[in-house]
Model the fold of this input.
Amino acid sequence: MLEGLEGIPAGERVLLLPHCLRPSGRCPGRPSRAGFQCPPDCPVEACPIKVLRAEAERLGYKGVCVAPGGALALRYVQEKKPRLVVAVACQKELVEGEEAVKGLGEAPRVLSLPLARDGCVDTEVDVAQALGLLRAGLPGA
Done:
């Protein structure tokens, strides 16, 4: 599954996250047409979105989209045209998203990680595993 990733630089990768990962009771972020927008000075240290976004940016990813659903995520992939998508979501959204991405002209490769706990609000992901996918195939990562 992770073979051949060393040929895909970070600048040709995007990260897709579900907005349900945010800690709903403390999150200062706001929804927008471009996905959920986190403030640059977010005070919520334990937020998995904050941790994963920061690492993707540090690695030089082409972009990060925190989407409320598959339609916005697919549009983001169509606009960014990455060679690799790292996607975190519930199993149902991952299956539907991967099928939709396959229908794109030059479909990017997709690495997906299902949520450890889903339910549409205050979901959970294995952050260490997600960080591993973000770094997969990158030199020195």
The two ends are 18 Å apart (CA to CA).
